[in-house]
Specification:
The chain is α+β, with helices and mostly antiparallel strands. It is 25% helix and 33% strand.
Length: 110
């Protein structure tokens, strides 16, 4: 019986502590959305691996996988741009507000 009481006290204190901490953290967080997509060559339609995807004005960046897929968390209601860059391709800048939850991007070979 003592074990059950101790378990209940621990569970309650963990859930109460996390909800209070969560409320404080959310005030300081900016709202974000997860965007996924695929980067392809504009002429051939081939997937592009290793494309750098960077949120301008921040250190946040990700790279496409071997199949050209990416996932990046972007700020909601922002005027920031995201830059897609790869060797021998023109830079592509896209405003965060233009990105849906799934956005495919094509890069033009230079």
């Amino acid at each position: 019986m003592k074990k059950i009481g101790l378990i209940l006290v621990l569970l309650f204190s963990m859930s109460a502590g996390s909800s209070f901490a969560g409320n404080n953290d959310k005030k300081n967080e900016k709202a974000t959305k997860l965007v996924s997509g695929k980067v392809i060559d504009q002429n051939t339609g081939e997937s592009l691996a290793g494309v750098e995807i960077k949120i301008d004005g921040t250190d946040e960046k990700v790279y496409t996988d071997f199949e050209g897929n990416f996932f990046i968390s972007v700020p909601v209601n922002s005027n920031q741009s995201i830059t897609f860059s790869a060797l021998s391709y023109s830079l592509e800048k896209v405003n965060v507000s233009q990105l849906g939850y799934h956005s495919d991007i094509s890069l033009k070979n230079q």
